[in-house]
Amino acid sequence: MGLNIGITCYSTYGGSGIVGSELGRELAKRGHTVHFICSALPTRLTELGENILFHEVEPTHYPLFEYPPYDLALAVKMSEVATEVKLDLLHVHYAIPHSISAFLARELNNDLSYLPIVTTLHGTDITLVGADRSYLPITRFGILKSDGVTAVSSYLLKETCQVFDIGCDKISVIPNFIDPNYYYRRQNEQLRNKLAPNGEKLVVHVSNFRPVKRITDCIRIFAAIQNKVKARLIMVGDGPEKAQGEWLARQMGVSKNICFVGKQPGIVDYLSVADLLLLTSETESFGLSALEAMACEVPVIASNVGGLPEVVADGESGYLAEVGDIEGMAKYAIKILSSDNLQRKMGQFARQIAIENFSTEKIMPLYLDYYNKILEKAL
Questions:
Q1: What mean pLDDT do residues 152-172 have?
Q2: Is residue 72 predicted with pLDDT exceeding 80?
Q3: For residue 75, what are the domain limits?
């Protein structure tokens, strides 16, 4: 018998919205009913269906409130949906504010059946507290009041336990995943010719262009690549650092070979024509864009931080270098781009790792087993 599951995630920011969308879709494929309770339709959720429903959260706009209280509106909507459709559990992505809203929703429904809460930590939960310690008590409260807590990497589990002084037995690692039947390399000569009209190698970066992604490092690395290999840099995404990246590209004289294409719903199209992915982040709890690239047979050069070493096999599916090591990353990039054989070999091994370790067939049973374990404890 299928479960009735509520999912809440941010609709536009980072990997959590993508993971929440993909998780809901995979659950629906397996006969479960998924209710997305969000302020807007999540980024990768392009269509609804009989098993996927959307409940919009609309904060009240009232002159007294400088900022509409989204977290309270979310709690009310969660409570309403849980009552109307008899949810079996709520799965929220990010502790703040979603686990707090879920806890309030459960308290509102305390005269009904107990509503278990599963919280998935994606990383900003931790960095937010690192930047502003005033959030520590409320974040810790949300984690402790959840019936189940998952982290997307072993790195994030350890960080969470250390920052919040929580026993690691409270948290289970369930990594991010890809559907290999969707994420695979496809022929797209039209796009390839558009992006590389003169047969250039294509280096791709995908992110939300926040400062932590260090997109100016990508520009500097690409400038060094240009000295040795005929290439173009494709910057997929948008965010606060875009203008700085464009300015630096002009200053370094490489802007004519860099293309900022904005946010792209069909990310597989761009990965399918890529020869290399650059991920220069200061920190990554997992590195979903690296996994998506690997599934599309794209070697990855990434920072040796956070959960990335759990995804990228250094020297086999790509290379890892220290944060800010422009020279080292450029050297690795030139090595890969200068050898079609090495590029192909690394790309094939990257897809093998993606399928063996992070496919839906491997990860979805982990989520379903976890849900059942939480539901049994709640009885």
A1: 92
A2: yes
A3: 4-177+359-378
For residue 153, the Cα-to-chain-centroid distance in whole angstroms is 12
319's enclosing H/E stretch is strand 318-321
Q: Which of 308, 314, 317 is nearest to 286 (CA)?
A: 308
- 301: enclosing H helix or E strand: strand 300-303
Give the model confidence (pLDDT) of 104-127 as tens digits. 999 998 777 899 999 999 987 776
Number of domains the chain contains: 2
| DSSP string of 28-88, one letter each residue | HHTT-EEEEEESS--TT----BTTEEEEE------TT-SS--HHHHHHHHHHHHHHHHT-S
Residue 63: predicted pLDDT: 65
The tens digit of pLDDT for each residue in 13-37 reads 567 788 888 999 999 999 999 999 9
Using an 8 Å Cβ cutoff, are 231 and 222 in contact?
A: yes
Q: How far apart are CA 227 and CA 223, in angstroms?
A: 7
Same domain for 278 and 367, yes or no, is no
Same-domain check for residues 223 and 328: yes
13 shares a domain with 131: yes
Q: At 301, phi and psi to the nearest 5? A: -110, 120
Cross-strand partners of 117:
90
pTM over 0.90: yes
Mean pLDDT of the 364-379 span:
94
127, 24: one domain:
yes
